[in-house]
Amino acid sequence: MEEEHQNPPQVGRRRGRPKLLSDAELRDQVLAAAMSAFIEQGFARTTTTDIARRARVSKRDLYRLFADKTELFAAAIGSRRHLILDLPRSGGERHAPLEALRLIFRLDLSDRDADERDAMLNLVARESLLIPELNAILYDTRVIQSRELLMDWLHGQIAEGALPDHDVGRLAGMLMDVVFGALLPRRKRKGAVDRTAQAQDIMARLEIVLAGLNSISRKDSR
Question: What is the pLDDT of residue 221?
């Protein structure tokens, strides 16, 4: 008679309950998934089903946190706008204008964060052209207010005497054109971006703008 073999009982291997996430954690998870989907597929082709699947959440939870796909788009961009412009700055900070602009325009980002920043800039630029209503929503909800924040910072620099008095609206627009024009070239890049060389190029451009601003100020004071 064959001897019966039984597997020994396993002790201490209980199947635990899945971790319950807070609403804040669920929100971050959904926003990360939404950003990934929007970058890969664009706004029109992305569905809330896609986002829920990527985030591994139920559509019920998704709609509990966000009213619709448009709100999700605005929230996803807003959650990562610090990658585009680091404003407002913390109080008591003291940097020369050129170094402050390096930090404001996030030329200190890691390669991974810089790649995400570039993808987000391309996303906003592309979708704003395809669906103008999205651009209006981003401004109406104050998700995109980069120029206004930069103008506020320039006003502060002028008040402190760190920069000469100038039309801050035009100056803010010029600074953003200089930086984002370099980050979003008209021709598609081939291969990986040399972030060190890119930052050095943008810093050189900013230095020229500041030098020109100081030169105009000296002429005006004569």
Answer: 61
Domains in the chain with CATH codes = 22-79 (1.10.10.60), 84-221 (1.10.357)
Closest listed residue to residue 69, CA positions, set 40, 109, 30, 116: 30
Cα 109 to the center of its chain, rounded Å: 11
Q: Which long-range contacts (CB under 8 A, 24 or more apart) does 94-102 make?
A: 96/162, 97/157, 97/162, 97/163, 97/210, 98/203, 98/206, 98/207, 98/210, 100/153, 100/157, 101/175, 101/206, 102/199, 102/203, 102/206
pTM as predicted? 0.81
CB count within 10 Å of CB 86 equals 17
Query: Does an H or E element contain 182, and which?
Result: helix 168-183
Residue 67 CB contacts under 8 Å (≥ 6 apart), including other chains? none
d(CA 156, CA 168): 10
DSSP character string of 13-63: ---PPPPPPPHHHHHHHHHHHHHHHHHHHHHHH--HHHHHHHHT--HHHHH
**Start-to-end Cα distance in the chain:** 113
Q: Look over the chain and give the mean of its residue pLDDT values, rounded to a whole number.
A: 88
